[in-house]
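batch job 7 of whatever, protein = YdhG-like domain-containing protein
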Amino acid sequence: MSESTSFDVLVDKYISQFPSDVQVKLQSLRQIISNSAPNAVEKISYKMPTYAEHGNLVHFAAYSKHIGFYPGASGIEAFKEELSRYKGAKGSVQFPLDQPLPEELIRRIVEFRVRANVEKSREKKRKK
């Protein structure tokens, strides 16, 4: 079993522990992230699904009333106006389970994080 396959199983297992309506939202979020960051590695980190490409991009986790989405402080700051309708903190946002996921916004946040990580990686290489 390859490393990515074993992580796929772990993420599948993570998602399967929730009620079916929440599983649908988590699978949708997973698909949006995978489509928006096709080169990202899916793994479990901090006990939640995590996507990494030149460092961590985003994490997500389900709770009783919301899905926590963690694009880091830069991801929140860059989209703070559009995220203002949701509860959140410096590096996270809460998407209520009783509302549709803002799929287009999530896609743009993930793509932003990919660009930011690629640029950060290039900067590190230039300094060497």
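notes: The first helix runs from residue 3 to 16.
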